[in-house]
Amino acid sequence: MRNFEIAAMFNEMAELLETKDENPFKIRAYRKAAQSLESLTKDIEDIAKQGTLQEIPGIGRELAAKIEEIISTGKLKAYEKLKKSIPAAIPDMVEIPGVGPNTAKLLYNKFKLKSVGQLEKLAKGHKICNLPNIKEKTEENILRGIELLKRSKERMPLGEALPIAIEMTGRLRSAPGVERINYAGSVRRMKETVHDIDILITSSKPKPIMDAFVALPRVRDILAHGATKSSVLLKEGIQVDLRIVEPESYGAALLYFTGSKQHNIHLRGIANDMGYKINEYGVFNGKTGKRAAGEEEESIYKFLKLSYIPPELREDAGEIEAAAKGGLPDLVELKDIRGDLHVHSEWSDGAHSIKELAAAAGKRGYEYIAVTDHSESLKVAGGLSGVELKEKIKEIRDINRKIKGLTVLAGIELDILSDGSLDIDEALLPELDIVVAAIHSGFKQGKEKLTRRIISAMKNKHVNVIAHPTSRLMGSRDAYELDFEEIFKVARETNTALEINAYPDRLDLNDINARRAKETGVAVAIGSDTHVIGQLGNMAFGVAVARRGWLEKKDVLNTLALDKLLKKIKK
DNA sequence: GCCGTTTTCGGCCCGACTGTTTTCAGTCG
């Protein structure tokens, strides 16, 4: 799977081309192609073999040839040449907020800089403030930009960003003059990580709201403070943008501010073809300037003859074409979830008793939870021996006799050992209601071996779900590579579900693999991997991944009623 | 560099904020 490697190369080429005064549309073409590769649900090498590269949106004759060159030689001459032609300090300087290609080139040509560090020294010595278009203020801004670059995080996990977005909108809601308020951007699209938080407000009196915004307690730095648009950097290292528009522009502004950029560009292109223009204020007739829509998002999609596209799908990954044909999926919702299939109790490394978990799950309206404590070899997590497992199953049966309205399923999170065997006396497996298996060690074994381990677990007739298939932990452990095509194939053949682990640092399967699972007819189970009762709420993040993966209710195992669930999984 | 029942050439989304300017370029989203 070299999709991401090639996408990264195209993205880097776009950045390099930006410093060369290249045609901006050519630069966009590279970005669009990169994005297209990132959202691809198939292996690029397979597509190349079939000779259908040019069927990928944004890939034409030239980029297809470049992809083939990368696949066959491992290199791309055009990339190497481009990289050699641009001094490394220029793209490094462009990383500084406020410094773009032109400023970077100007600085390089004047001082022949080798690094951002050298630039910082010069700026501190007031050596750059006599260049054309650069005076003291710009010099200060460059220094501030360098500081920002050091302090700001690359991307923040959704699990951290969403609560901040909710808190900030909550605080601003009561500011004088606020009519409607929403967070937008990639947080609204529920992307797994976000670069910044976008907030939209409608009001006819923006100024006092803006002043309140930049004075909020979390604000560490004000990056821009205008009449209708401001940006701040929070103490947490993430940027928040606030935009205020008149109430009649709510829909258009929410659409614009939610993105994605590629989705908006595509919509605006459709409007152009119809003789109309879309901006953040509305849809306007290109000739008369007369307003045609914009108060609500729905009215804009309707005007463009598209069905309404939920934010999670707005990535220009085929959703606009589907909406034009009325073929959008009817996305699964949190309220469709009838139970949680991955929960830990104090029998292993969870904090609560099974009784407490059952009560909390009942409060959430669930019909069932599977208590899936770890198996014996996972010592750090207090894995259960066979004897303990038997006791635990007995406890669950007792609890089920006493409680009403919710069924506790006797489960296990079974370790898939490094040779692919299962960490249990297999005679015990039939006594369990549901068996979840997962890899917890040997992450560096390589693609082939890891794939074989998972496949051999799936082939066991008692294993129902493979949990967190790639074992990634955002920010600390990358996903290992797997042959997903093979895994999906065996999963379908053996009636094994793959998990979307809803724990915010995992979200594994991710959106793209979830979509591919659906396309290949593999069932998906969403599990919260709860260790503390509050984490049951993480189910919402798992549902978000499912929605971003185009999943419908029927694609998700734990939307089934208990009797249907038990009938559907293998025994 | 892509794309096309209007086009194989000539389009390609659109606007806010800032600083250095005296009308605009650069940057950002």
The count of β-strands is: 17
Find the CATH topology of the largest domain. TIM Barrel
CATH superfamily of the largest domain: Metal-dependent hydrolases
For the record, the CATH class of the largest domain is Alpha Beta
Per CATH, the architecture of the largest domain is: Alpha-Beta Barrel
Bin the helical content. 40-55%
Percent in strands:
5-15%
Gross morphology is globular
> So how many helices?
23
Structural class: alpha/beta
In whole angstroms, how far apart are the ends? 33 Å
The major β-sheet equals: 7 strands, parallel
* Average of the residue pLDDT scores: 92
Low-confidence stretches: none
Write the layout of secondary structure elements.
Layout: H1 3-18, H2 24-38, H3 44-50, H4 61-73, H5 77-85, H6 89-94, H7 101-111, H8 116-124, H9 136-151, E1 156-157, H10 158-173, E2 180-183, H11 185-188, E3 193-194, E4 196-202, H12 206-214, E5 219-225, E6 229-234, E7 239-245, H13 250-258, H14 261-273, E8 276-279, E9 282-285, E10 291-293, H15 297-303, H16 319-324, E11 339-343, H17 354-363, E12 368-374, H18 386-402, E13 407-415, E14 434-438, H19 447-458, E15 465-466, H20 484-494, E16 497-501, H21 511-519, E17 524-527, H22 539-548, H23 562-568
Helix pairs in contact: 1-2, 8-9, 13-15, 19-20, 21-22
This protein binds one DNA strand of 29 nucleotides through helix 2, helix 4, helix 7, helix 9 and strand 6.
